[in-house]
From TrEMBL:
Protein name per the record: SET domain-containing protein
UniProt-listed PROSITE patterns: SET (PS50280)
Chain intervals with Acidic residues compositional bias: 460-469
Native source species: Rachicladosporium monterosium
CDD domains (UniProt xref): SET_SMYD
SET domain sequence ranges: 317-520
Region Disordered: start-end pairs: 445-469
Classification via Pfam families: SET (PF00856)
InterPro entries on file: Gramillin-biosynth_MTr (IPR053209), SET_dom (IPR001214), SET_dom_sf (IPR046341), TPR-like_helical_dom_sf (IPR011990)
Amino acid sequence: MDYAALLQKQKQLTLDAQGRKGKKATNKHGRAFLEMLFANKTKPSPEGCWVRTCFISYAYPASTTPLAQLRPILISDLRLETHHHGKVLFLRTIGHPTRILAVQNAVEDQSGGVDRLAVYNTHPTTPIEQILPKHALFALREPFYKATVDGGYTIRVDHPSNLIRLQAGDERVPAAFSPRLVELDKEAEGLKADGNAAYGRKEYCAARFEAALADANAAIFPLELGTEALDEATAKLNGKAYYRAGRAAYALRDFARAAEYFRKVERCSASGDADAEREGKRAACRLEEQKTGHYDFAAMSKAVSATRNNRLDHADFSIRVKDGDSGSRGRGLFAVKALKKGDLVLCEKAFELVFASENAKEVYTMVNLNTNRASMGAHATLLFDLVQKLSHNPEQARVYFDLHDGGYTPKIPPQLVDGVTVIDTFRVEAISEYNRFGCPNVRSSDGASMKPRAGLGKNDDDDGEGEDSQLENSVGVWVVASHINHACDGNAVRAFIGDMMIIRAVHDIGAEEEILMPYCNPKNDGPATRTSMKKTWGFECDCRICEADAGTTKAQLVRRRALSKEAVRFLENNKLSMQHLANAASIRKAEKLLSDIEVTYDKTAFANNRPRLALTTLGHWLCQAYNFASSQRKVIECAIRLLRDLGYGISVANKKVTIDYSCGRPDIKAIDAAMYTAHSHYSLGERKQGLYYEEFAEGLWVMLYAEKQGFRERYGSS
Ligand SMILES: C[S@@+](CC[C@H](N)C(=O)[O-])C[C@H]1O[C@@H](n2cnc3c(N)ncnc32)[C@H](O)[C@@H]1O
């Protein structure tokens, strides 16, 4: 898909529309046409995959003015391309709703004026009949009116919180609508509305309980204000209520409170309660994880698979880190105490996550006019999920809106207006762009363990750089990890098992030292990586690799790029396998190319094992080539050189191997290099050295993939 063309076209259409700003709509469709358009209930989409394009239009703030302070306006008074500040539009839906990207319906106002209403950023799984049902009444705060590409007009809602559903009997409903009011079903809608109204009046306790009892999905049960109120209310209730409160607290990840409620259930019953006992134990496990960071990662890894919902039931472990000031980087995350290489730094469940596998039926292309970015995949669904989650949970909204937003203004905080949580969807997306991480559908080790490397087991032509493309598939937000700043040579690295992000130290980290991790895999071309970081994240990396690269002359860079292109061609034409071994000429060519690229690295700037990434793919090829040729000493020589180019300084004295991890990048190539070395030592009868390298490789594997799963599949047994 040509994203640039799509973006350009949309910008032009928006610009053209601006020419009509402030004018009244002409040649509008009449009631009969709109009634016909929305006459029928929408049939479910036929089977197949639908690609939808979601445009994030130019940002404008969500309305925070209460209805009581807004003056009514009629459809006939609306001006094109205009945000009608200080105004409210009372509307009644005429037809049956339909969804293309927005949920749409025909609407009328109290004077009989008609138009089309389009509500964006609602969740695709929310039934449209729930969003804009036929004959429902709404108040739309500060409406925005637009011409559409099909030559018509629409009242466009980008912030769903601007649209307030009004219930029968609400005194704010204009009198002209009264004769045609449709009685609501008090059973479902009425109970929810009573809860919302109580919430609006700040009767939190009542609101919580009405919501909790009416809604089995306890995740939307708000505990954000004074949990004593909850205690007070539950005290009047029986064990069943305590049990529900325990489940609700668990869903809100307040495991201590959940455990307390489950204990109360047991106290209410003389003979004990098996369900409460089981749930109490579960809450106790979560508390243990929170306190100690002891997780059964092997079991977690077994629990996820391509066919399951990989959202895991585990607590966060975050007591080893704290927020702090990182100077020009803004806020950062810092180690509370000294950590050893391989230690768990943070283990966090996703705040919100969309697995690519869940998007099989609808694929969204998202085009953002504010940031000039376009992407395809789960990003749009993540936005809809976030808007839904934040709208239902003000406490979670406060956490989310505290994340870095790239300087987005205005910073409208989540707040309750007319009983609805105001959520600025443009700011939600701005924050998502700076804070979301790509992740695999199942676990990080899959790409590596399923494709064993040539010469170390089965055949493989993966160059070890495939992780990024796999990471693009699923996308999520982890709010604690979001405070971590970037460094290409970071001291921490992340892995995923299902929706859990597991961050480990790649070398020893001092107390109070900032935790840094690479946001993306640095590519072999350092300056190119830096330019793309600047474009995507808005900063220039000043890590040790980037600092060394900055000292490289233009001539050296031009030469390195030309040689790297030659290396790519060489690798494409010289794929290795048992059937295609390298001949002496190709090995000579690779050695020559490698030493030519090495010359482009300034010796002083890249001293002390600073990674020289442009050497690593060719270095890896040479390890494989010598391994196939059973030239064990050459394998060891090449693998140690490759490890050095990945930042690991290896020194061997009296058969004792010492490894300097301080600049090391735990890359799959480094693990392969260590295992090539181990296997070669074994073949040469040097078991002790072999074991040392194997232990080093296994340690790197756990850093990179969270636990040992997949290591033996790739490398076989020692
Ligand atoms: C996910 S946030 C990280 C936390 C952020 N610093 C904060 O204040 O909340 C990403 C943003 O942090 C800043 N940042 C991250 N790494 C940086 C670095 N190495 N140098 C300068 N700014 C950095 C950039 O503004 C980037 O867009």
